[in-house]
Amino acid sequence: MLASEVSSLLDHLGVSSDRRRGAHAVRSPLTGETIAHVQDASPQYAAEAIALAETAFRRWREAPPPRRGELVRLLGHELRAAQDALGRLVTIEAGKIVPEGRGEVQEMIDICDFAVGLSRQLYGLTIASERPHHRMMEQWHPLGPTGIITSFNFPVAVWSWNAALALVCGNPVIWKPSEKTPLTALAVQTLFERAAAKAGEVPEGLSTVLIGGRDVGETLVNDPRVPLVSATGSTAMGREVGTQLARRFGRSILELGGNNGSIVCPSANLDLALRAIAFSAIGTAGQRCTTLRRLFVHDSIHDAFMAKLKGIYASVRIGDPLTSDDVLVGPLIDATAFESMQRALEEARAHGAHVHGGERVDKRQFPDAYYVRPALVEMPAHTGPVLHETFAPILYVMKYTDLDAAIEQHNAVAHGLSSSIFSTDMREVERFLSTTGSDCGIVNANIGPSGAEIGGAFGGEKETGGGREAGSDAWKAYMRRVTSTVNYGDDLPLAQGVRFEI
Ligand code: UN1
Questions:
Q1: What are the UniProt keywords, alphabetically (predicted)?
Q2: 169 belongs to the catalytic site
Q3: Residues within 6 Å of ligand 1 by CB
Q4: What spacing in Å lies between the alpha carbon of 107 and ligand 1's midpoint?
Q5: What is the pLDDT of residues 364-404, one digit of tens each?
């Protein structure tokens, strides 16, 4: 049933029939059924894509950046026109609810707008020289073909954060999407090709998609013609990608896991905090890298707050998001995700936790899909499974009495992506945002840790990988920095006052 809807969505999005056959079966997490087939890229095809990108780079780097921006503007235009169809395909292929599928495409449109503006900026500095009649400056030049490895949970937006910036910076892009979500990738590539045809003078191979598994990713990571790979996914994947790239002095932008925490202080607006926590912990079925996984609640408000939170967890509507607008929680991506969730909950019980929810629902209706009630886990201590990221809707709740101790505990995990504090006491908020507060890349107040806007730099510290994508000056990672010193005098004064008379 879903297969025929997918087929008409792909028709509507213009995905050609030769892209829709092959041995790679695509499954929808909504029902577990096969919705389409695609072809994996052979190693030769991958090598050809890299060679084409290298040739495209020679032309594209010479295009004035605002002209590159025009291509991205047209891509944004295609995305606007395709927002509903592509968003729905995201829902079917990745399982997120319809407003979130649509929201993901909005994130793509937003970064295109950002990148168009950026294409008239990309500025360097003029730096004061210590020598008379010298000018020192910084320029930013295109870097080269950029590999983009993305994950199932944001199957299209993460490509766009990287691609929109890389393209205006003068770099071709080669995309390896998750094996679980190739259809949305092929749809986006089709939209890109349509934008490219309208823009004109876009070199062949400026953007390509390589469907496939680990071997395809490795081709990108190991090829010296790809100077930069941006990889989003698990810490285990990032550790391999990062070290293999480092061996050949390739650059990486790593956006890996998160074990994100929030602190609820006694002065917080509790209704606001409840709504924010529900969205961050339950939304996207806990499958965002920014999902809230650890909650520290002050003991003076703990019991009343937990009573309300339990009410939300017990009543939230779970199910196939295509059947009802009230559904807020779609399925987990697959059986492996379900099993790792159950393992984490067992471990929590073994550590003395009280687990509310976490069970599979609608199993009879959907034997091959994995719908779960989000789990609210009252932990006696910050220990065991709390210290690890499980990519599922599990919220561990701990009590705290002293804010400094809570911040210390908040930071005592391997990841450092996103965090937040709920408080109306500006001293507490500022403390959390300060040098000695949260150690994450994203530190919020009175909103949850998930759902970042594209205008800021996105990424985090420690085992999150240290990369930054999207807004602010994240574009600099896609470019080659050049320091230039120009002597416009007739003398040759040397730096540091060195004398070298010949
Ligand atoms: C991810 O889960 O990999 O901040 C990205 C957010 C989204 C992006 C999440 N804008 O939750």
A1: NAD, Oxidoreductase
A2: no
A3: 107, 153-154, 158, 232, 288-290, 450-452
A4: 10
A5: 999 999 999 999 999 999 999 999 999 999 999 999 999 99
The dihedral region occupied by 144, where left means phi > 0, alpha psi between -120 and 50, and beta the remainder, is left
Atom of ligand 1 nearest to the CA of 450: 11
Query: What's the 20 CA to ligand 1 centre distance in angstroms?
Result: 28
In the three-class reduction of DSSP (H, G, I as helix; E, B as strand; rest coil), residue 260 is classed as: strand
Pocket test for ligand 1, best of 289, 447, 453 (most atoms within 8 A of CB): 289
Task: Give the model confidence (pLDDT) of 190-240 as tens digits.
Answer: 999 999 999 999 999 999 999 999 999 999 999 999 999 999 999 999 999
- pTM for the model: 0.98
Q: Could you give all domains of the chain from N- to C-terminal order, each with its CATH number?
A: 2-256+465-483 (3.40.605.10), 260-445 (3.40.309.10)
How many helices and strands (H and E) does the chain possess? Answer: 14, 23
What number of residues does the chain have?
Answer: 502
- The share of the chain scoring above pLDDT 90, in percent, equals 100
Report the nearest-CA residue for atom 3 of ligand 1.
289
Is 289 among the residues known to form the active site? yes
Q: What is the mean pLDDT of residues 305-324?
A: 97
Ligand 1 nearest atom to the CA of residue 289, by list position:
2
Instruction: Out of 289, 389, 463, 469, pick the active-site residue.
Output: 289
ipTM: 0.98
Provide the mean pLDDT of the chain.
98
- The b-or-e profile of 54-86 (16+ CB within 10 A means b, else e) is bebbeebbebebebbbbbbbbbbbbbeebbebb
Distance CA 204, CA 52 (A): 7
Give the tens place of pLDDT for each residue, 15-58: 999 999 999 999 999 999 999 999 999 989 999 999 999 999 99
